[in-house]
Design goal:
The complex is a heterodimer.
Chain A lengths: L4 E3 L2 E4 L5 E6 L6 E8 L3 E9 L2 E4 L8 E7 L2 E6 L8 E8 L9 E2 L3 E5 L1
Parallel strand pairs in A: 2-11
Antiparallel strand pairs in A: 1-3, 3-8, 4-5, 4-9, 5-6, 7-8, 9-10, 9-11
Chain B lengths: L3 E4 L2 E5 L4 E7 L6 E7 L6 E7 L4 E4 L2 E6 L4 E6 L8 E8 L6 E3 L3 E6 L1
Parallel strand pairs in B: 2-11
Antiparallel strand pairs in B: 1-3, 3-8, 4-5, 4-9, 6-7, 7-8, 9-10, 9-11
The chains are: A mainly beta, B mainly beta.
Chain lengths: 115, 112
């Protein structure tokens, strides 16, 4: 049973460059979440989708961040232009939203370093 | 919005003893409470969850209790082992919006 798959696992780039993080949710899950984790701010929800539609993007820091979910098996989180303060671990999670709460399952994360 | 507070931030326990981590939440509409374990450099992994229609749930050495009136829930780990060392996060979710609000985490260290 493949879990949530994220790529790349590590990304090091210079400030000002565009960064694209990718996520493949668990097959059959209809909700997808993007989180950012830092020592200072802990785990923050950036945006989540249900049935490929963005439901809540109130956690997206600013216009430099954008996320898309073109189909049920793929999502991207893009940062353009990137800044050093964007350095963090970015997690994608998925769940099945139905008649009761279901747990979110996390991917292994992308460790992003902006120089 | 929901606010989840978690205590303590660090906890050291002798191997074989019990560990208890406590969380409080602010939104009475929250009805789902998962706990995640995160080892260094790894992803958060669900270890146990509880819904608001039950007061306690147990899975081997791990148990969670929920007091809806007081709006607090706790994680209990008995007979602790070195592999229990990790950061533990509690979270709360309102079924209506599917958003998980996480606590700030507890770094648990098991002393051999």
């Amino acid at each position: 049973d493949a879990g949530v798959i994220q790529s790349p696992r590590h990304e090091v780039t210079e400030m000002g460059q565009e960064v694209t993080l990718r996520c493949k949710p668990i097959s059959g899950h209809n909700s997808l979440f993007w989180y950012r984790q830092t020592m200072m701010r802990g785990l923050e929800l950036l945006i989540y989708f249900n049935n490929n539609v963005p439901i809540d993007d109130s956690g997206m820091p600013e216009d430099r961040f954008s996320a898309k979910m073109p189909n049920a098996s793929f999502s991207t989180l893009k940062i353009q232009p990137s800044e050093p303060r964007d350095s963090a671990v970015y997690f994608c999670a998925s769940s099945f939203f139905g008649t009761s709460n279901q747990p979110q399952h996390f991917g292994d994360g992308t460790r992003l370093s902006i120089l | 919005g929901e606010n989840v507070e978690q205590h303590p931030s660090t906890l050291s326990v002798q191997e074989g003893d019990s560990a208890v981590i406590k969380c409080t939440y602010s939104d009475s509409a929250s009805n789902y409470f998962p706990w995640y374990k995160q080892e260094l450099g790894k992803r958060p992994q669900l270890i146990i969850d509880i819904r608001s229609n039950v007061g306690e749930k147990k899975d081997q050495r791990i148990a969670v209790t929920l007091n809806k009136t007081a709006k607090h829930f706790s994680l209990h780990i008995t007979e602790t082992q070195p592999e229990d060392s990790a950061v533990y996060f509690c979270a709360a979710e309102d079924f209506g919006n599917e958003k998980l609000t996480f606590g700030t985490g507890t770094r648990l260290t098991i002393i051999p």
